[in-house]
Specification:
The complex is a heterodimer. Chain A is α/β, with parallel strands linked by helices. Chain A contains 4 helices and 5 strands; from the N terminus they run ββαβαβαβα. Classes of the chains: A alpha/beta, B alpha+beta.
């Protein structure tokens, strides 16, 4: 029953992917706050933060509040946040709290990377 | 005429965050067997989880000495789930009047703790939310309209 939350940072060319696994609840706070992502985008040199939800079976309002803080921090640092691997139900909850206005959701990592590549090409 | 209750169950939990998961597992088994579709089941589980968390945290102050009782009643067209804690309740009418749009905007713009969405999830995902007292204990009650195949309940 205990699905301990863990997160791993995986840098990529244009930013950082957070591999999330386990239940995202109030108890996830400690793991999330240890991440370099809070130090600022300079510390991981990128403009894009990508959250992988494929291994997150359970989220409650406290876990979603942590995500709001994370996305908010990214926005202030000039980062765009993406997410992928969310069930339709969790996408619905994210819409209800307004998170989808600030975190762009895609079905999988490949489509996120395609979108980021397009954005980078458009910048040049 | 009142609909007959087709099945029921009761569970007690106590303690801290995470205690609600045991209820969700039992709910899933019970309701999947009854044929409630996946999307509706997810709504029920989220709303009940939030109700339990409110009861554990705000009603019972996370005390292991206090329990939360979850009572499920299944009818042909609806589910009624009552979550009873040992607290004194809260001003639910005022809380339900929250301007959720303004709350969304302020959470993304501000620096504070963006909590307080549990009640909104309960109210949005259930068809009815009621609050009251049962034998001196506070409860939140969630009602969900369902269609089911009436499987082995």
């Amino acid at each position: 029953m205990d699905n301990r939350f863990e997160v791993r940072e995986r840098p990529f060319e244009h930013g950082l992917i957070l591999e999330l696994s386990g239940d995202m609840t109030r108890l996830s706070e400690e793991s999330l706050l240890r991440l370099n992502v809070w130090e600022g985008a300079e510390s991981w040199s990128g403009r894009y933060l990508v959250l992988n939800f494929t291994q997150v079976p359970y989220m409650n309002s406290a876990g979603i509040a942590l995500l709001i803080r994370l996305v908010r921090t990214g926005m202030k640092q000039g980062c765009q946040t993406f997410g992928f691997g969310l069930t339709p139900h969790f996408q619905k909850l994210f819409r209800m709290v307004g998170l989808t206005e600030y975190m762009l959701l895609y079905p999988d990592e490949y489509s996120v990377c395609q979108r980021i590549d397009d954005l980078e090409r458009a910048e040049r | 005429m009142e609909e007959p209750c087709l099945f029921g169950d009761e569970w007690d939990i106590s303690g801290s965050y995470g205690a609600e998961k045991a209820v969700l597992l039992r709910l899933e088994d019970r309701l999947a067997a009854y044929g409630v579709d996946r999307a509706r089941l997810d709504d029920v589980k989220t709303a009940v989880a939030e109700g339990c968390l409110n009861a554990l945290e705000h009603g019972n102050a996370l005390s292991v000495e206090r329990s939360v009782r979850i009572r499920l009643r299944g009818y042909r067209s609806k589910l009624v789930i009552r979550i009873i804690d040992e607290g004194n309740g809260f001003d639910h009418e005022a809380r339900l009047q929250t301007d959720w749009g303004a709350k969304r905007a302020s959470h993304m713009a501000g620096d504070g703790e963006p909590r307080g969405w549990g009640l909104h999830f309960m109210n949005a995902l259930a068809d009815y939310v009621r609050f009251g007292q049962e034998n001196g204990r506070f409860y939140a009650e969630l009602e969900f309209s369902v269609t089911s195949n009436g499987g082995g309940a």
